[in-house]
Structures are given as C-alpha cells and as structure tokens.
Amino acid sequence: MPITEFLERNAIQYPDEVALVEINPHFEPESRITWREYALMQPQPGDYFRREMTWKDFDRKANRFANLLLTRGVKKGDKVAILLMNSLEWLPIYFGILKSGAIAVPLNYRYTAEEIKYCLEKADCSILAFGPEFVGRMEQICDRIPYIKHLFYIGEDCPSFADDFETMIRYCTDKKPAVEITDDDYGAIYFSSGTTGFPKAILHAHRALVHSCKTEQAHHGQTHDDVFLCIPPLYHTGAKMHWFGSLISGSKAVLLKGTKPEWVMKAVSQEKCTIVWLLVPWAQDILDAIDRGDVDLSKYETSQWRLMHVGAQPVPPSLINRWLKVFPNQQYDTNYGLSESIGPGCVHLGVENVRKVGAIGKAGYGWETKVVNDKGQICRSGEVGELCVKGPGVMLCYYKDQKATDEILKDGWLYTGDMAVVDEEGFITLVDRKKDVIITGGENLYPVEIENFMRKHDAIKDVAVIGMPDSRLGEIAAAIVEVKEGYTLTEEELNEFNTGMPRYKRPRKIIFAEVPRNPTGKIEKPKLRKIYCGDALVAQQNRG
How many CB atoms lie within 10 A of CB 505? Predict the structure, then answer.
C-alpha cells in the first residue's frame, strides 16, 4: 500500500490525538506558565512558541493541498518542490503532494538562490511551496524560472510574485482526492547532501517510502505511546524516515526548532519524549553543557527517555561511552544509510549490541550488505573495501543522469562510496568515504580513524582530517581542530597526544579552527579543502 494510507488510518483510529507538536524556543514566553498553558492562549502567527496538530487535522490539511494541486492542473508524476523550515505545515504539504499523485521534491534550506534554481530545473518541478525565510532568494530567481507555474507562499505578508497558501486552500475540500496511487508509482525526489560536489536528484518509488516505515519500526519498536523528538531538517531523509516510525505507530512527534542543549532537554522533559535522534555535534554539546553545569539534569524529567540514537556520520566510540555514563538507563543505537537507500536503516547496530559501539552494525530489516574490493570480490574479515547494500529502499535512479546511476547501481547493489571493514562476527565498521582516503607516500590513511583517536582528547570538541598536497609524499594528513569552550590546547600538546597513533597516521599539520558541518551533521570537507588547500586539491580529492 502507498505511504499515504498510514496517515489516513491514523486519522480514523486516533482523530483527536496529537500527531505533531512544533516548538520554537526563540519565542518562549518569559512568564512561568507551562508550554501547554501557553498553547491554550492561542498565540498569533509569527509569535508562537508551541503549536500542535491532531491526526485528523493533519490528514485534512494534506487533502486540501492535494485538491489545490489538482485544481491547478497537477497530474500524476508531476513534481512539486518544498522549500520550508521545519514547521507544522511541512509534513501536511509533503503528504498533500503524494495524495495528488505528484512527486514530492524537498529542497535543502541552505541552498543559495542559484542552487534552488538548479534543483528546480534538474527535477523538472512545476510548482514550489516556500516559506518566509526564502523570499529574498526567490526574488533573485523568480523571473528566471518560467517552468514554475505556481509559487505558493506559506506565511504572513505574501510577496507579490507568489500566491498566498492559506487563502488558496481555504476554498479547497478536505475530502480525500480520487487519485489512485500504487507502491510502484514514483513518490519523491531527494537531493544528495552535496558534500562531494553538486547535489544529484535521487528518485524513489512509494514502495521505498513504505519500506523505510517498516524498517524504522522494526529497529526501534515504536508503539503508540512513544514520543519522538525530531530536530534535524525534514527535507533530509534521515529526519523524515525516523519520523516514519511515529507515522506507522500513530504516535506523537515533536518538531524542535533549535539545537541548544537546554532546549533539547526541556523538550524531552516537558513533552515526555521517549526517543531522540541526535547528530554527533548535538550529543557532544549536551554532554559539554552538563559538564560545565549549564544543564542541571536534576531539573529535567528524563526517566521516560528510553532510546538515544545517532546517525548520518561515523560515530566516535568515545562519545557514546561518555553518553552512557551520564545516561546509564538509556538504550543506544546507530543507523547507517544514505539518501540513495531512502535514508537510515540499511545497516543497523541494534540496542542489544551496545558492546560493539563504534560499528554501524549488520544488514538492516529487509536489507543485504557486502564489502568488496576494487575487483568486486568479497573482502575477507578485517580487509577494507567498499560497502554495498541491496534492498527494497534502493533508489530507482539518479533522475536524468544515467551515467551516474550506472556508476553506483550494479546488479541491484548500491555501491555507497563508503569504505568499511567486517569483523569476525559480521559487524561492519566504517573506515571513511572512498573519496576522502588520503594516500601519503603510498600508504592509505583513513581520516575517520584518525579523527576518532583525536576526539579522545578532553580539550577537543571536533576534528576533521583532510589531505594536503605535498611535493614529496603526494599528500599529507592535516587536522582541523576545534577546541572546547573554556579549554586551551597547543600544537605541541596535541602532537604529544598523537604519539598514541602509529607515526605514519599522525597529522603532519595542525590547524586550530571551527569544523563546519552541514544540517545533517556531516563534516563539509570540500569546504575545508577549498579554504586550506585551494581549488586544485578540491578537484583532486573529488576524484572518481
């Protein structure tokens, strides 16, 4: 069945129960009233702190947008783009697109005006729904996107070049549209995160979306009583596909618009969250805030918080070991995935395997995995190779890019570009991105391995290792090191600490600076290469 039927079922079974809560800490009232009391005061749009939506209203809003699209001539297979910050409007718009038979195309909110234009053209979009944060960027390109037939604006003070969303849907029926959708129909186009170049358009069928729901629930056992705290951006498969566990179980989810440790802890406490998915920097920030005394755990209710899981990037074992000392009653899990495999879950550690912290796990629910060498042969235990996955969530193709599709899809297997190793128990550990491997004097260096070691230093908040050109060795390892607030660290001290690694793995250059990460938590190494190595090395490191 298509994924839209989960929403319709929830609207029937749990019509008046809360489906979504949006919390914007930037508008928190100064008085000591509770969040729920504040919501009952019905704050005006633009001045809200906490809003909520029932499953019945969720489904009705999705139906209204679907019917609006149909009145504007949208046909099955047309592409409708979403450019919104996380909000109560995001998911009803997404499901409205799916209910109309169209293909949803979520866009990264960090895209520049030209990147927005590129993605709209690449995906053949004909309609865009966007929010107030993007008016300036849309003004730059609105007269250069003639293929966009309708621009729907979600927010106050609608610009002259767009149609006001609330005004338009007011006159649309909230009845389910008469559009037949099957598992084999195209459902969504997601863009790759672009950490290795310009984003590619990834096409998925409804079948893949449904499988991601089943995978998430199989891994984390969501029940109707769970409450999921969602912080990452919904345009990305990681956030949305973890929320799919709430969709399939009909349980509440909280959209938190901010990542400060005290905001996360307050949301967990006030909303009684049971499951939280964090990125590495956010988990690090929470622990650091607790260590500094900025967050006092005794002031928060966390006994119901049963699961913390981390994904989107290699997870330092030192971070999780530290987390479990602070939160000993929680379960920990990690999920590996990529947008080409409909987000997280194709590889899964499992809460029962916490002893294997550092590994990403084994094949997830309904998935197969293998690690192969450059000749396509299965690697022996302990041998580094490329991770490949196969299952119902593999993308159909890179939209309008057959060459790139053929490079990554082979005999049903998705070649991830991630280097990994399998141990004697069958657990997979990521080594690094294939394109990030540093070759120095004929030796392969895996930056993640070096980064994990260096993060054990008490003064290091974050670290990124990149290759720098060297006339003698070809490349050398350079470490960009971000020091924790309140700590000091010298190059000499760090070099002494690094003697715990074999000599050839030690970074030959140390740079103290901020480590940039994208909204999904991945280190932006192309940006670092451009800053510290120049454009020539960017091209070299993005080889292949």
Answer: 18
The helix-helix angle for 90-99 and 55-71 (nearest 10°) equals 50
User: 409 with 397: CB under 8 angstroms?
Assistant: yes
Structure tokens at 222: 């969501």
CB 219 within 8 A of CB 244: no
Please give the Cα distance from 387 to 379 (Å, whole number): 10
What pTM value is reported for the model?
A: 0.83
Distance (Å, whole) CA 321 – CA 324: 5
Spell out where 391-537 has E strands: 397-398, 409-410, 413-422, 428-433, 438-440, 443-445, 460-470, 474-483, 509-512
The SS3 of residue 336 is strand
Q: In this structure, which amino acid lies at residue 156?
A: E
Per-residue pLDDT, 41: 53
Residues of the chain with CATH 2.30.38.10: 306-433
Runs of H (alpha helix) within 293-361: 317-326
3-state secondary structure of 432: strand
Select from 3.40.50.360, 3.30.530.20, 3.30.1330.60, 3.40.50.12780 the CATH code of 4-258.
3.40.50.12780
Range list for CATH 3.40.50.12780 in the chain: 4-258
The per-residue pLDDT for 194 is 52
Strand duo 474-483 + 509-512: pairing: parallel
Question: What CATH code would you report for 306-433?
Answer: 2.30.38.10
pLDDT tops 60 at residue 422: yes
Secondary structure (DSSP) of 142-166: GGG-TT--EEEE-SSS--TTSEEHH
Nearest to 386 by CA among 414, 406, 359: 414
Q: Which of 214-223, 307-316, 523-532 has the highest mean pLDDT?
A: 214-223
Is the CB of residue 62 less than 8 Å from the CB of residue 111?
no
Mind listing the pLDDT tens digit for each residue in 464-490? 999 988 876 778 999 999 999 889 999
What pLDDT score does 313 carry?
Answer: 64
CATH class of 439-541: alpha beta
Q: And the tokens for 133?
A: 């944060």
CATH 3.30.300.30 positions along the chain are 439-541
> How far apart, in whole angstroms, are the C-alpha atoms of residue 341 and residue 390?
8
Residue 419 is predicted with a pLDDT of: 86
For residue 115, count other CB atoms closer than 10 A to its CB: 17
316 close to 451: Cβ distance less than 8 angstroms: yes
Kindly report, residue by residue over 90-146, the tens digit of the pLDDT.
999 999 999 999 999 999 998 889 989 999 999 999 999 999 999 999 999 999 999
| Cα separation, 50 vs 40, whole angstroms | 9
Number of other residues whose CB lies within 10 A of the CB of residue 133: 12
Distance separating alpha carbons of residues 233 and 248, to the nearest angstrom: 20
Give the span between the Cα atoms of 462 and 459, in whole angstroms: 9
